[in-house]
Amino acid sequence: MKGRNAIVYAAVRRIPRGRVATYGHIATIVGLGGLARQVGYALNALPAHSTVPWHRVVNARGGISPRSVFGAEIEQRMRLEGEGVQFNAAGRVSLAEYGWRTGQATARRGKRRTP
Prior knowledge:
Helix 1 crosses helix 3 (36-44) and helix 2 packs across helix 3. The chain is mainly alpha-helical. 26% of the residues are buried. The longest helix is centred in the first third of the chain and has 12 residues, at 2-13. Strands 1-2 form a two-stranded parallel sheet. 37% of the residues lie in helices and 3% in strands. It has a single domain, classed as Arc Repressor Mutant, subunit A, CATH 1.10.10. The chain contains five helices and two strands; from the N terminus they run H-E-H-H-E-H-H.
């Protein structure tokens, strides 16, 4: 299981600042298509002060999934908001706007202005 976790962590490290990916997207990237929960288990196994940006992984609806550690959901939202990710009134992130796609440029591009 440690080898699988390391592969998940490597994929999560690729998510750019200000972007999110779903558990399912990470599962697909690492060859676990359809096994999104395995990504959740791997992230749950992270040590407390890990540098893996676990907060950039959200559920398929763009929401923050419940955690076993008290306050982790609040911490995740605060980290994402600190990176410029916005939540709607239902507490969800727009995957169309903030979702990361493999190969996407690291920096978020601003909206173009028309002259």
